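tokens incoming
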């Protein structure tokens, strides 16, 4: 590994043309100065590069290269020209006194993206040099950039120092700005002047709100302005769509979802978002705020207070009413006058949309007059124009103009207090509505209950017989759109249709049918279908909660499996709690099931106290109602909670009780599950023979059942116990059999899970290439399925494999992504485990301070959750850092405490080679007597004292 330092003179071609003599003198001085500085910091400058006014130097240490770059820029401050410098570290081929390869190429591309006077570094160089910076120097994170001709993007840092300039334009990299803006399906028409003015306004105002009636084009204008501003906001442009949200509490969730953040335990989501954006420069587009105006205003205020460099662009039918808000009214497109027909934006929009439905459209001289009338009468409002244009495949433009004129004149006689544009939009939609027959009107109102897109079957369920024909006619009249096998309605039209439904007196009847459809949908148990219909199902849940509470309980139970599998744990807990709060008189069986699932969600997030309370309540209710199925499930999960808390004795009691219930109700499937769980406890306590015997019983039962999926689960657990016992051959046999079953069923998720286990076997044998392929394949499946828990687990395994293969940057990236996924799901245990892995990387790479920060955070989390085994592991990691700090006696004391902690919970001791700190090395360093004394002193403390001792030791090392 070497670090390259490349320099280049900015604008040298022009200077050679204008001042050749001066350039010759200045460049010679430049070369001599760089050569001297590089040599002074332990590097070597390679002279002959054939790159004109550039130099190329190489260093054995990244810190030396950073020091040389800083000195060089300071010395060149008064030169004729400005020099840009890039640093990158990696492997390279040395040949004939020169270097070649991808690392050199990446450094050259990095240099090309920089500006004169600037020093930029790659992520790997920054990591290697960050703890050995020259006095006064620091790094500025410039974000992730794609560099020309390079497939992989690079995270770039700028070297900063009081003696160097700091204000540079954005890097000249390829477009790598982050955003979640949708790709437009139609051409953006007009508003060129507004776009330019709006972007200028955003530069000077931190909050800009586009206001106007529905259909005036606020969203389209905001999205186009945001799309053209991506380069201005290095930390992303994030669209937060509020139109489908039904209550204020969902706004923070929507912002977090746009940023890819999830709720953290014991921390409000707003704080998580604020912490994430505090040092970032981003643009947030809050779209359709009007129905949640107070929550939208509060969210905008929180975002702007958290990040001084960020901006908010909102769209609403009214202003947010905030100090510093710049209100931007959105009016119609420009309409034609006698001399500006071709220049009219409204005409251009009409023709563009009309040609989509009628490619043979011929705008004749007569049509010009009619088109002018249409655009003027509709005030240039985009939605009204698009509705009119959609009729051009069945009506002439002249007929459209004449009929619109009649309806327009009639409907403008409404409320004088309404905005004229609002009356014009209402006229356009009213007119379209008047063209519908009775069946179309009924269907139009009925499908407004879907806040999201929906299938034909769903539309039939709420709109009744004949819906196939009705939906087709609504699509033809542009009141509905179809994409593939799903239908969607513009939000303004949906609100209009909902108002019509309410006025018809049929709203309750239709919403009851919608709820019946929702109940039938979740009863099928197709997780993918439930996920696709999520917004529609939540709308039905809202109606059920208000009107049919027992059905709300059944619906939330049907949704909860999808929430669990997909990792929507916070949302699931919130909705379960909301329905459970409706009262104790609800269907006892359904209530017990909901309490059980709420307990599982709490356990998944590491909230063990709440989990135990919910599960215990479910158990008591199920026992009172003789619901043995829920009794068995509650006991099983109570055992799982006890196991995660490190109390294997309590876990065993619950699992044995579950086994008794399973046998009493004659459920051999549940019996096999309980035996498998008891096998896991036996394995955890070092009873390997007992573990394999119990798992063998579970497997024997599973083979008698006609249930390949369950047999696969049991084989997976049997393989895990065999692997944990050191019997890799048996583990591989079990995994392979389970894999064959999963492949026969086409169960992609199960296949991926088994590939991760087989990868463990191959990695243990040293077959790293095979393991890497299997893990990558499984990760691809988990990503496609949206299975966040297993994706996090797969990334952890692949990251650990990369760490073992010394792929530092790649390993860290995967482990960081895994930690972020666990954090997003609120899974404290998962994130803590990743912090231990990342901390170990820091320790091995020579950054003990960073390692201790991760270890102590993990220890505090694990101890707070009563995860005794996890806490013991964290103490062991801290002991390794303490030993590296030369306090070997204290490290041995911590090792003694770890041994006692593991013994108290019945967990067998860790093999010495697998520990972050070696007791053998500690004994050798201390001698037998002092080592045994320190070990005994540590073994004498209880768990709380051991944790306090480790935290104090970490604090002392840090100080």
């Amino acid at each position: 590994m070497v670090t390259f330092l490349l320099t280049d003179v900015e604008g040298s071609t022009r200077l050679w043309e204008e001042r050749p003599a001066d350039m010759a003198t200045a460049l010679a001085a430049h070369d001599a100065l760089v050569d001297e500085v590089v040599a002074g910091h332990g590097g070597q400058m390679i002279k002959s590069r054939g790159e004109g006014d550039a130099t190329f130097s190489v260093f054995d240490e990244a810190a030396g290269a950073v020091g040389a770059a800083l000195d060089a820029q300071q010395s060149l401050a008064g030169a004729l020209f400005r020099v840009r410098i890039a640093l990158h570290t990696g492997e390279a081929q040395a040949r004939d006194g020169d270097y070649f390869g991808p690392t050199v190429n990446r450094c050259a591309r990095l240099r090309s993206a920089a500006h004169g006077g600037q020093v930029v570094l790659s992520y790997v160089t920054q990591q290697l040099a960050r703890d050995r910076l020259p006095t006064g120097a620091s790094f500025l994170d410039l974000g992730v950039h794609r560099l020309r001709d390079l497939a992989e993007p690079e995270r770039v840092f700028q070297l900063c120092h009081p003696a160097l300039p700091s204000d540079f334009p954005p890097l000249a990299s390829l477009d790598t700005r982050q955003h979640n803006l949708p790709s437009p399906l139609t051409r953006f028409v007009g508003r060129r002047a507004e776009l330019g003015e709006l972007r200028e306004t955003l530069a000077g105002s931190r909050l800009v709100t586009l206001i106007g009636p529905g259909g005036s084009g606020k969203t389209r204008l905001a999205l186009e302005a945001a799309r053209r501003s991506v380069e201005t906001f290095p930390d992303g442009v994030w669209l937060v769509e509020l139109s489908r949200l039904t209550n204020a509490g969902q706004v923070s969730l929507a912002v977090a979802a746009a940023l890819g953040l999830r709720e953290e335990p014991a921390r409000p989501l707003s704080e998580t978002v604020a912490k994430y954006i505090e040092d970032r420069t981003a643009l947030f587009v809050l779209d359709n705020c009007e129905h949640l105006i107070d929550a939208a205003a509060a969210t905008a205020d929180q975002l702007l207070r958290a990040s001084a460099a960020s901006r908010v662009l909102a769209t609403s039918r009214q202003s947010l009413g905030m100090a510093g808000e710049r209100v931007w009214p959105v009016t119609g497109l420009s309409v034609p006058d006698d001399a500006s027909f071709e220049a009219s934006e409204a005409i251009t929009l009409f023709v563009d949309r009309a040609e989509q439905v009628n490619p043979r459209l011929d705008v004749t001289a007569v049509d010009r007059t009619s088109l002018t009338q249409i655009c003027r009468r509709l005030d240039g409002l985009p939605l009204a124009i698009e509705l009119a244009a959609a009729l051009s495949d069945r009506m002439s433009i002249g007929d459209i103009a004449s009929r619109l004129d009649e309806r327009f004149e009639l409907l403008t006689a409404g409320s004088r207090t309404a905005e004229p544009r609002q009356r014009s939009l209402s006229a356009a939609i009213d007119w379209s509505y008047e063209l519908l027959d009775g069946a179309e009107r009924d269907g139009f109102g009925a499908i407004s209950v879907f806040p999201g897109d929906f299938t034909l079957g769903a539309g039939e369920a709420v709109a009744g017989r004949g819906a196939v024909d009705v939906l087709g006619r609504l699509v033809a009249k542009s009141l509905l759109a179809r994409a593939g096998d799903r239908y969607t309605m513009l939000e303004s039209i949906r609100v209009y249709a909902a108002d019509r439904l309410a006025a018809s007196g049929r709203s309750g009847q239709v919403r009851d049918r919608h709820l019946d459809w929702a109940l039938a949908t979740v009863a099928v148990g197709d997780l993918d279908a439930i996920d696709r219909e999520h917004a529609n199902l939540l709308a039905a849940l809202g109606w059920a909660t208000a009107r049919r509470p027992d059905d709300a309980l059944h619906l939330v139970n049907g949704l909860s499996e999808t929430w669990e599998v997909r990792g929507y744990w916070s949302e699931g807990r919130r909705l379960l709690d909301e329905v459970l709060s409706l009262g104790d008189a609800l269907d006892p069986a359904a209530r017990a099931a909901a309490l059980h699932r709420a307990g599982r969600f709490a356990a998944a997030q590491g909230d063990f106290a709440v989990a135990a309370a919910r599960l215990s309540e479910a158990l008591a209710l199920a026992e009172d109602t003789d619901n043995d199925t829920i009794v068995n499930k509650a006991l099983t999960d109570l055992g799982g909670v006890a196991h995660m808390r490190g109390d294997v004795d309590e876990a065993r009691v619950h699992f044995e009780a579950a086994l008794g219930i399973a046998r009493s109700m004659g459920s051999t499937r549940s019996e096999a599950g309980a035996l498998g769980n008891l096998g896991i406890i036996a394995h955890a306590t070092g009873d390997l023979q007992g573990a394999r015997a119990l798992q063998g019983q579970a497997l024997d039962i599973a083979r008698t059942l006609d249930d390949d999926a369950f047999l696969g689960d049991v084989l997976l657990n049997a393989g895990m116990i065999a692997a944990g016992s050191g019997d890799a051959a048996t583990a591989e046999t079990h995994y392979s059999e389970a894999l064959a079953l999963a492949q026969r069923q086409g169960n992609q998720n199960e296949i991926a899970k088994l590939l991760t286990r087989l990868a463990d076997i191959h990695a243990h044998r040293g077959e790293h290439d095979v393991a890497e392929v299997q893990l990558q394949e499984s990760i691809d499946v988990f990503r496609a399925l949206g299975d966040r828990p297993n994706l996090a687990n797969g990334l952890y395994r692949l990251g650990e494999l990369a760490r073992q293969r010394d792929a530092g940057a790649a390993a860290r990236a995967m482990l960081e992504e895994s930690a972020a996924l666990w954090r997003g799901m609120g899974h404290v245990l998962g994130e803590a485990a990743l912090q231990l892995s990342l901390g170990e990387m820091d320790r091995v790479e020579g950054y003990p301070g960073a390692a201790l920060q991760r270890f102590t955070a993990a220890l505090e989390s694990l101890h707070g959750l009563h995860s005794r085994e996890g806490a013991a592991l964290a103490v062991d990691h801290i002991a390794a850092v303490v030993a590296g700090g030369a306090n070997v006696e204290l490290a041995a004391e911590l090792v003694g405490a770890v041994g006692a902690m593991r013994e108290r919970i019945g967990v067998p001791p860790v093999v010495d080679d697998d520990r972050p700190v070696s007791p053998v090395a500690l004994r050798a360093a201390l001698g037998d007597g002092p080592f045994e004394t320190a070990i005994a002193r540590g073994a004498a403390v209880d768990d709380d004292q051991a944790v306090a001792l480790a935290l104090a030791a970490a604090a002392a090392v840090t100080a």
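note: Residues 406-424 have pLDDT under 50 and may be disordered.
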